[in-house]
Amino acid sequence: MTKTVLYIACSLDGKIARLDNSLDWLFAVEGDGDNGYAAFMEDVGAVIMGRKTFDEVLVLSEEYPYPAIDNYVLTRQNGKQSEHATFTNEPLDVLLERISPSIDGKIWLIGGGELIQEALRLQLIDQLELAIAPVVLGSGISLFPEGTLETRFRLTGCRPSGQFIMATYDVLK
Ligand SMILES: NC(=O)c1ccc[n+]([C@@H]2O[C@H](COP(=O)([O-])OP(=O)(O)OC[C@H]3O[C@@H](n4cnc5c(N)ncnc54)[C@H](OP(=O)(O)O)[C@@H]3O)[C@@H](O)[C@H]2O)c1
User: Fold this and answer.
1) Terminal Cα-to-Cα distance of the chain (whole angstroms)
2) How many domains does the structure of the chain reveal?
3) Least packed by Cβ within 10 Å: which of 74, 92, 111, 122?
4) Where residue 60 falls among pLDDT bands split at 50, 70, 90?
């Protein structure tokens, strides 16, 4: 099956956004160029994200950032529509099994925390690529919310990128 990669930025205390969803703390961190984003995107064939993350993507971007590939947004609401994405309430494992055969490249699981928790529960993440920002927020939306399945990882790569640490892990299943 197609590889599913969680590629995400977090604070030193494991937050992916402030409680009001803001990412000002992240944008304030000095990186190195695009921190490898373009290279990562080269073989991404589809993205999957939670509805709250999708809403934030729309708020943050003047132009929709992933127009050339399939976009899936998990929601429990009925009847949501967007020109940019397909909304679905399929269980994540069912969705992945259905779309994988037709996807050219890997699947980027964008987040957020709620979707990540579900993906780890179902053991659907193959790889984690983490951009760790040198800031402690103290509160915020967690990368791995309370109650996430205990999961082991194996470090496969680590490099600085400006003030970020870019860490790559395989998920041990
Ligand atoms: N730092 C980063 O790199 C990064 C990356 C990604 C996201 N974020 C941030 O993370 C925040 C959002 O994270 P979050 O944890 O609050 O929310 P989220 O995971 O993005 O979205 C949660 C929503 O997704 C839907 N959902 C989740 N699991 C589902 C399932 N199994 N089946 C059907 N629908 C499901 C539900 O939508 P409905 O309520 O519509 O039913 C739920 O309310 C945003 O602020 C975003 O900017 C940061």
Assistant:
1) 15
2) 1
3) 122
4) very high
Partner residues linked to 10 by β-bridges: 132
Distance of CA 123 to the CA centre of its chain: 15
Which residues in 1-13 are b (16+ Cβ under 10 Å) and which e? ebebbbbbbbbee
Across the range 27-44, mean pLDDT stands at: 97
How many angstroms is it from 40 CA to the middle of ligand 1? Answer: 22
pLDDT value, residue 130: 98
pTM, rounded to two decimals:
0.98
Pick the residue whose CA is nearest to atom 38 on ligand 1: 75
CATH value at residue 104: 3.40.430.10
Q: What is the pLDDT of residue 122?
A: 98
Q: Is the CB of 61 under 6 A from ligand 1?
A: no
Write out the residue range of the structural domain in which residue 40 sits.
4-172
pLDDT in tens, 79-90: 999 999 999 999
140 to 6, 12, 25, 49: CA distances (angstroms)? 19, 12, 11, 18
Four-residue CA torsion sign, 122, 49, 12, 31? positive
Considering only CA atoms, which residue is closest to atom 30 of ligand 1? Answer: 74
